[in-house]
Amino acid sequence: MKIGIFGGSFNPPHKMHVDIAKYILENKYLDKIIFVPTGIYYKYKSNLAPDEQRLQMLNLALEGLDNISVSDYEQQGKLMYTCDTLGHFQKIYPSDQIYFICGADNLSYIETWKNAVYLLEHYRILVVRRGQDDLESILARLGPYQKNIEVLNMDLNGLSSTIIRDKIKNGESIGEEYLNPKVLKFIRKNKMYKN
Fold first, then answer.
1. Which of 43, 46, 105, 183 lies most in the core, judged by the most C-beta atoms within 10 Å?
2. How far apart are alpha carbons 49 and 52 in whole angstroms?
3. Sign of the C-alpha dihedral, residues 169, 174, 180, 186?
4. Could you give the strand order of the β-sheet that contains 68-70, starting from the edge strand earlier in sequence?
5. What pLDDT sits at residue 88?
6. Domains along the chain with CATH numbers
7. If we measure between CA atoms, which residue out of 10, 8, 6, 7 comes closest to residue 187?
8. What single-letter DSSP state applies at residue 151?
């Protein structure tokens, strides 16, 4: 079985996150996807909503979807690294192939990650194109590891969690074109991203 670990802050999880997962499964890239929201100690993200709230929103956004689940593995109150997370799931699924799902923006600095060479050699990576990232030059730079990297042939609409947070902060209207209605209700109820 091919299992994808979809990491990210999911702050908040929006419809494009769900569309990416559905696309991957429907087009048989993978058999199962596990969303793994990063913990609050992740150094590349600031102003993260509390772990529990992001976990609850993910569960709401993914409710009822087959072959998709959520794990709180990285929310253990300490800094977690992608290589450790992938290793954790490889131990749980020893006979399966573990994939890491990431955006081209993350792939652009993957060499700086902890145990990057091991990660690139031992796991497969599914890459989602984002914006104007020069994916071809990124792949060329990664040279011998390209065999383990697969680019999704998917058109994205440019939606991002940052855009959603900024709209909420600025008092702009956010509708169901951005978020699952249950996630939207959760954000409003908890008065999230207001400042």
1. 183
2. 8
3. positive
4. 68-70, 32-37, 2-8, 97-103, 124-128, 149-151
5. 97
6. 2-156 (3.40.50.620)
7. 10
8. E
What are the mean pLDDT values of the chain's consecutive 10-residue runs (195 residues total)?
A: 95 94 96 94 74 96 97 90 96 97 87 93 91 80 92 78 90 88 95 87
Distance from C-alpha of 127 to C-alpha of 134, rounded to nearest angstrom: 12
pTM above 0.70, yes or no: yes
User: What is the distance between the alpha carbons of residues 34 and 4, in angstroms, rounded to a whole number?
Assistant: 6
Q: What is the pLDDT of residue 34?
A: 98
Q: Where are the alpha helices (DSSP H) in the chain?
A: 15-26, 51-62, 82-92, 104-107, 116-122, 135-141, 161-169, 181-189
**Beta-bridge partner residues of 3:** 32, 98
For residue 125, the model assigns a pLDDT of: 96
Token pair, residue 133, equals: 């990232």
Q: How far apart are the first and last CA of the chain?
A: 43
**Structure tokens of 30?**
């993978």
Nearest to 20 by CA among 103, 81, 80: 103
Which amino acid type is present at position 164?
I
- Cis before 12 (ω within 30): yes
CB 22 within 8 A of CB 53: no
